[in-house]
Write a structure and sequence with these properties.
Layout (H helix, E strand, L loop, with lengths): L1 H39 L1 H8 L3 H26 L7 H22 L2 H29 L2 H12 L1 H20 L4 H20 L14 H9 L1 H32 L3 H8 L1 H4 L1 H15 L5 H19 L4 H16 L4 H7 L7 H30 L4 H19 L11
Helix pairs in contact: 1-3, 1-5, 1-6, 1-7, 1-8, 1-10, 3-5, 3-17, 4-5, 4-8, 5-6, 6-13, 7-11, 10-11, 10-15, 10-17, 10-18, 13-15, 14-15, 14-18, 16-17
Length: 411
Amino acid sequence: MNGLTDDRKFADDSVWCGATITAGWLLLLFVGAYLITPASILPLVMTDLGITEATAAALVSMPQVAATVIGIPVGIYLDRVETRATVPVAAAVLLIGSTGDWLAASGGTVSLLIASRLLAGVGMFVLWVTCINVAASTFPPARRATATSVIISGYPAGYALGQLSAPRVAAVVGWPRVFPVFGIAVLVMSLAFYVAVGRVPRCHPSTDPITLLDFKRVIRNRNVWAILVVTILGYSLYMVFNSWMPTYITRRFGVSLAESGTFVALFPAVGILARPIGGWLSDTVLDQRRRPVFAASFVGATVLAVAMFYSTTIAVLIAILVLAGVFVQLQIGLMYQSIQEFVEPQAAGTAVSLASVAGWLGSFVAPVVAGELVATTGIYAVLFVFAVGLGLAGGLTVWQMAESGKSTTPT
């Protein structure tokens, strides 16, 4: 009888573990859709608000600014509390911010729109870190990388959803109302995630809290800094393509914004498979070596950016863009594992927070720089030159950095 009870309990736990990952995936899906919304309707935003390309691109990146500012202290704090309770609170913050987006955009108040996007970014970062922490603590060590990769893949799927659906929703309700539509969806899924997490046992690592000395060791670790640079450049590449390709395709080939959004939605969508595949390749095929995946990601993206520059038909451009999406996203997810391998176990959470902040920083800076380049030169093709520069810098950094993995001793 005890064996039957244990089997039933294991089956119930498995169901709720699956529900947790599913709810977390859907939660990050709508978070990603909210974040990318301005990029998918950029010409409408610029026309109605009377702003430049650089300012419009900054609207896309405001949540990343908030994440960059609050990321490290929030990450350390979340390592020391029960993160489940923070989920609906963070989702409510994002909903308030998205409602502010609607009111500010409807009134044409750009400063208020920037402020509301910053506020939403606080909720976004907490949800991101919490989903990663929950995925890792819900599953045993042998399955944590898979669980984390799967739940993180909801984020690029959200980018695809935003690129695909935002122009269509905007055509029905007006573009300012698109923001709270995704904000409401985030709140609903946060409640589902909260319920699911409460039904499964959690595995907590038995390590001491990080001390000030541990934090200093992390900051002084040159390998950690190498991963942070790689993360900034990798996310920069990702966001340059994601935020500016809809507008480039519309201006270059004369298609509608909805059509270009549909095409570009394929770029983040391939991350649903590319991110877990990158981790699998590193762990299984490459015997836990990380550098080959990082190198392949940057080299592939650089070559494909050159190919896009010379593309003369929309079909060829979209095919190359999708392939670039695969290469760029192979390394995303692996970044968070690699940086932990360069530090002591008690500093792993802080290392992940640092990598997250670096990623958000790259996500914010790159679209703004790209917008300034377009505004200064008046040529959208300069985007590809910028992308090539990012790829070359990333490849050089990978060439110089050490290999992480089981045999690596933190330095």
